[in-house]
Amino acid sequence: MFPEPDGWLPWGHTTASDVFYWKTSANDPNEWTIVGHPGESDDVVPFDGGFTDFLHTFVWDTVGMPFIPEPESDVPIAFEPRTGEWLGGAGERLQPYGRFEHR
To answer: Rounded CA gap, 42 and 36, in Å?
Structure first.
């Protein structure tokens, strides 16, 4: 059954192609730890903690993974929610994208 014990379950990535995984080493998902894999490397960087621990340390810029760049803003990193406003103009049609082009 997926995910397999001691497997890696991807849950996120950065714009630099770094990938984050849960290491599924325990039967209880609340005990899974996090592993980071820099996109341009064969290295892996373990994080001793779960997702909420990771998120907290990321927001406070203390995550300790060398491939994560320093934030450009003050710590804690500000959360800026989207307004949900439509980005196109009124009646504006979206351009076709990739294989979903209208023919």
So the answer is: 11
